[in-house]
Amino acid sequence: MKHVSIIIYEGVLSTAVSNTASLLMSANEAAEKKGFDVPFLIELIGVQNKTVQSNLPLQFCCSKMISEKFETDVIIIPPMDTDPAHIDAFLAKNNALINWIKRKYDEKAQMISLCTGAYFLAESGLLDHMSATSHWGAMEDLQKRYPRIDFKPDHVVTHSKAIITGGGGFSSLNAMLYFIEQSLNKEIAVELSKFYALDYGRTSQNIFAVFSGQRLHDDDEIHKAQSYIERTFRTDISVEQIAGQVNMSRRNFIRRFKNATRLNPIEYIQRVKVEAAKKAFETGEANIADVTYSMGYNDLKTFRTVFKKITGFTPADYRNKFKGQEISS
Fold first, then answer.
1. pLDDT > 70: what percent of the chain?
2. Hey, what domains does the chain have and what are their CATH numbers?
3. How far is CA 21 from the centre of its chain?
4. Tens digit of pLDDT for each residue in 37-54?
5. Which of 2, 11, 117, 136 is 20 to 30 A from 243, comparing alpha carbons?
């Protein structure tokens, strides 16, 4: 039996804790029904206090604290319910947890971070030179803070050595399904995915990502170039044209743009166009050709190729997935 520690800190996202615990308890029940021993002993482990008030009208009562001595096989770090502007203070407040995570990893405990729980693993240094994922909305900040980590913004799950990381929101539960499959078998993982209506085998979270412009840098000229792109993306703009707006040579502009945004100018233009197209489909625009031409594309095939590369869906599939729901009476 594996001892599983779910970490409870002040500011933890309560729904992630309850969903994770429920999934593990269901795995225990499924294993018992198939004649296996109960695979997981699940405990809530407190950081600052044994009783933690969540952001919802409920409390978590922990059986142990990280200050106590105990052995554990698996440590699950749920996401935080914290404003991105307060991350520095939040990590400083949880420095004891970060040091505890490092010690337990040295003692051969397996680590699983869910969504923005990746901040704790990243801050500990355990993810250096490894692949990792997190919520797509936190990815730009994570990449800037921790350049030694190979973040995979599109991945739902990564597994490097004894560390599993999960993507954003409820898709992070795919990391738990992956862990259950690795610990038990595929049959139980698939059974649980059906019971909880989870998308078993999802590998990409690109469809959920909202491109927000990669603005966490200090290059004022590149900020101007980005603003120009965002104003004129519906036209057939060129790299030379944008470079001219900020009085740079094409070569110097491309170098500075990529250093600031981690994208080359063409990739950035494509992402701005695709984000606008996504919003058009989400708000009810049904004609793919009209959307294509309104984004400055003259060729449907090119638009389809770019759209699928960025979102993982064709324009038609994306439109159909996110069009308004019709509820039959």
1. 94
2. 2-208 (3.40.50.880), 220-322 (1.10.10.60)
3. 20
4. 999 999 999 998 899 887
5. 136
Confidence of residue 140 (pLDDT cuts 50, 70, 90): confident
pLDDT at 320: 84
* pLDDT tens-digit map of 256-310: 999 998 889 999 999 999 988 988 888 777 789 999 999 989 889 999 999 999 8
Cα separation, 207 vs 149, in Å, equals: 23
- Number of Cβ within 10 Å of residue 16's Cβ equals 25
Whole-angstrom Cα distance, residue 216 to residue 55?
28
Model-wide pTM > 0.85: no
More confident residue, 310 or 211: 310
**Which stretches of the chain are DSSP H helices?**
14-33, 87-93, 95-106, 118-124, 139-145, 173-183, 186-195, 220-232, 239-245, 250-261, 265-282, 288-294, 300-311, 315-322
Paired tokens of 194: 């059906």
pLDDT at 324 over 70: no
Q: 3-class SS at 41? A: strand
Which 3 state secondary structure label does DSSP give 115? helix
pLDDT score at 177: 92
Residues 6+ apart with CB under 8 A from 234: 273, 276, 294, 295, 296
CB 322, CB 281: distance < 8 Å: yes
CA angle 15, 92, 111 (to 5 degrees): 50
CA-angle at 176, arms to 171 and 180, nearest 5°: 145
pLDDT number for residue 38: 95
Q: Which residues 6+ apart lie within 8 Å of 127 measured at CB?
A: 118, 121, 146, 149, 160, 163, 165
Q: If you search the block for the tokens 């803070």, which residue do you land on?
A: 145
Q: How far apart are CA 152 and CA 288, in angstroms?
A: 30
Residue type, 105: Y
Element (H, E) at 8: strand 2-8
Structure tokens at 56: 């919802």
